[in-house]
Amino acid sequence: MEGVQGPEGELFPIEDVREPVTVAPGAVHLPGRLGPGRQRELLAACRVWSRPPAGLRTVRTPGGVMSVRQVCVGLHWYPYGYARTVVDGDGAPVKPFPAWLGEWARRTAAAAGYAAEEAGEAGEAGEAGAAGEAGKYAYDIGLVNFYPPGARMGMHRDGDERSAAPVVSFSLGDACVFRFGNTAGRSRPWTDVELRSGDAFVFGGPSRLAYHGVPRTRPGTAPAALGLAGRLNVTVRVSGLDGPGR
């Protein structure tokens, strides 16, 4: 995309990567996945995507108005489907999905145990031997949610895609409580995980359709050098949708 440069050199320097934590079968928290430089790159991209046309918008669902604001790249999500234009906003075409973001997602999925076929070329320690098929996943959607102070996200599941590929999310700015539940419904059991700026979270396999949400953020906890007030969550998905009418 014009105005947004892809990452150069090592995507994820090994010194920035800490041990992944399995939260549920197929669901993995990767603390510190993005170092300070990568966080700044992703934030810069989000700021470009957020400009109109097809920019940051307030999302209205049948249940009311969401407290987070959202912008999409690749395909536009609306309750409850995908389109090539912002059908519930200004009607503009969605900004293109950047190849580098798909590569970030594939490598992060590999680090979580969904091995990329090209992991041996990625230079990530421990990724080449992981099990899975992340290398086959053509990530094509990016959903950016902005949480101002006091915003939250109710329990929901990412079920509008036609692909079982793992979902990869990156956190920027304020820390939050990320509640990861089960596939049966919105109630317990669930596990609360603190996601900080630079963390990634991957869920697929038996946890692909698990309910999850953000009951609260922790205002004022963003790294000062990032220059972000609030929280950004960038969720990367495979749509599994083909053809001009998708």
Automatic annotation (TrEMBL):
A Pfam family this chain is assigned to: 2OG-FeII_Oxy_2
UniProt keyword rRNA-binding present: no
Residues annotated as domain Fe2OG dioxygenase: 137-240
Swiss-Prot/TrEMBL cofactor(s): Fe(2+)
Note accompanying the cofactor annotation: Binds 1 Fe(2+) ion per subunit.
Cleaved signal peptide residues: none
Keywords: Dioxygenase, Iron, Metal-binding, Methyltransferase, Oxidoreductase, Transferase
GO molecular function: broad specificity oxidative DNA demethylase activity; ferrous iron binding; methyltransferase activity; oxidative RNA demethylase activity
Source domain of life: Bacteria
Name used for this protein in its record: Alkylated DNA repair protein (DNA oxidative demethylase)
Organism: Streptomyces aidingensis
